[in-house]
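Tip: read the tokens left to right.
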């Protein structure tokens, strides 16, 4: 795996984690009926920092980083350009909302930012589902990216806010982690019974120690959450590490139709 792909791992996971943090923060603010301005704003600032770090990492995926603006010019035909545009718009609205939070919590602006974040995530999923990757040429990247955003976003609540939120968030985090593990086992199982390229993808995922380590890290918080419903900072670290390792598998272990051209798989 080359450095350009490492940058994609960082970009996608950090950007999706940022979306998850913002959506989780908004939902706790509105649905749980809680949310004091200082800790909500801190959550959004950290989400902005994650997004900025992800965007910075994405520059190393480009052969000529100073020409990155050219990626904005093909929105009509390229999902990658649409991804860049959507993420940049999301980042700009996030920054504007953080500034607006100095005086109050603008609920409508927070909702709009959260919705735009989810839109950017869906667009990003479409960008990584090309026909040349049969295993991913479907809705699976979007599902995986949504699960990444949800797990990191929910786990980030361990770093902020009143502990009154723990029970509400812990229940959802347990559900998301179990769903994440199930999806990540089911997908390669299905691929392993498919065509030659899909089968190679499923076998590569299951043969990867990195894949199984990321499953273990995703599962690690579950027994503690079931027992105490208390969120701990180590859970955020474990889940973030799990998502990074899982994304490594996503980019490294997925077989493409252009591999072994002229040879049998």
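Filled-in amino acids:
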């Amino acid at each position: 795996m080359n450095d350009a792909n490492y940058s994609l791992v960082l970009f996608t996971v950090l950007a999706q984690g940022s979306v998850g943090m913002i959506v989780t923060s908004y939902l706790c603010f509105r649905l749980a009926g809680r949310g004091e301005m200082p800790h909500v704003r801190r959550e959004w600032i950290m989400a902005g920092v994650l997004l900025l770090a992800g965007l910075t990492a994405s520059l190393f995926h480009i052969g000529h980083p100073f020409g990155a603006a050219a990626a904005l010019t093909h929105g009509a035909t390229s999902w990658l350009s649409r991804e860049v545009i959507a993420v940049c718009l999301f980042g700009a609205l996030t920054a504007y909302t953080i500034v607006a939070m100095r005086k109050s919590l603008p609920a409508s602006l927070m909702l709009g930012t959260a919705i735009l974040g989810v839109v950017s995530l869906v667009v990003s999923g479409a960008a990584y589902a090309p026909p040349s990757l049969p295993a991913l040429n479907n809705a699976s990247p979007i599902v995986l990216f949504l699960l990444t955003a949800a797990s990191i976003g929910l786990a980030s609540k361990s770093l902020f806010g009143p502990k009154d939120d723990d029970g509400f968030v812990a229940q959802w985090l347990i559900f998301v982690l179990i769903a994440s593990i199930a999806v990540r086992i089911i997908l390669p199982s299905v691929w392993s019974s498919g065509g030659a390229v899909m089968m190679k993808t499923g076998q590569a995922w299951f043969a990867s120690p990195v894949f199984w380590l990321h499953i273990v890290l995703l599962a690690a918080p579950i027994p503690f959450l079931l027992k105490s419903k208390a969120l701990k900072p180590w859970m955020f670290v474990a889940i973030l590490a799990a998502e990074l390792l899982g994304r490594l598998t996503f980019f490294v272990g997925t077989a493409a139709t252009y591999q072994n051209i002229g040879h049998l798989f």
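The mean pLDDT is 87. The chain has ten helices and no strands.
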